[in-house]
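seq as requested:
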Amino acid sequence: MRGEEFLEKLELIDPAFVEAAEVVPYKKKIVWVKWAAAAACLCLVLAGAFGLSQGDQIDPLPSASSEIKTETDPPFKDTAEKDSHTNTLQMWHEGYRAEDYFKFCDTAEEATEQNMDYAIDALKWQTRDFADWREKLERAGVIPVINSHREFNLQARYDDFGNLYAVTLLWSIRGDTIEEYSDLTVTVGHEEVEMIRCCIEVGVDDDGNVLEPTVTVTERDGVQIVARGGENTGKTLTFQNENGWYQISGSWNDSYQPVAELLDWFWEHPLDLEQFPMESGDEYSLASFEEMSDAFRGILPDFDALGFSQEETGSGLVLKNGMPVRFEGRYRKETTVTWCIAAEPGFYELEGCLGDLETLTREQVFSALEEDWKIEFLQDGLLVTVYPDDPNDPAEAWELIESLQQKQE
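struct tokens:
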């Protein structure tokens, strides 16, 4: 993962999701519309109590492409009612299934997430990362165990005064195909209802007429949950209770089941935002080579001696609490080679690792580039990823790798 991609992940922006969504067939064109305050109120609702019992775990969730088995409808009276905004209100019952939350949603429309970034225009957010707390939080029963999703991030957002406003949890699956993709997200914020602006996504037909949004509202014990999205689209469940504002989201590739299970978990186990003080989190930032010229110096090839010049664009460092943890540099001779180093690589980054630098062969490098567009290996416990701009001409990449092997001899 390159440095800029890593920072994008921290901000929960995944280009792969955007690209993949383009292949999903839609029945309508989708546009963004900011509705008036009355419509916004529909997305900021009260919540009740239902879910997994204390100590239960989601272990594991269905895979990203798993199907929901639809059983025969249980014997209950359907109490659905249409209101003036084409929202559909129905009553929860003990036989409620995950897909029932989305029963009246228009599956051609993508679910829309509240964007906490822009909830308060005047504030400039500061962020801290708590991804390293995953095992600790799982053991304490603060978050569910989701073994099927190997990547995890927990990011907290604070105002300029250090006051925590919201946290976002992200569980991810990444694979070689589009079917092996999942993003399960939970956003939890304080009860500042008037400060959260709701953006509702609506459809537009071929004639340009705006189609009113269709959502499903489920009432349980006098409390409402607002659902948007459906199969082959993103999906969200939104509610608010005395513990805060919650939104649980799944990607287009996730079934209804894991989204509903996360709803049940956090309804039963409210997230205490006070356990994430700003001073306890990790701060990530960017730096230039000029600011930290000695970063990773001991394990980098001698680019100058080998006739490579450094390009200004696409280069830099990612710092964690002021210390470099990722490096990206672009160097050119006849072709351009991008050289990346990760001190704390993610699970999916390590999957393509070819082994240690000492045992790496020319044949492995050339074969890897025939199958993929990068070379990954371990050097002194760090993950090095090399991206030749021309994978069909890996000679210069191998020249750099071979120089490191000779340095270690």
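The two ends are 29 Å apart (CA to CA).
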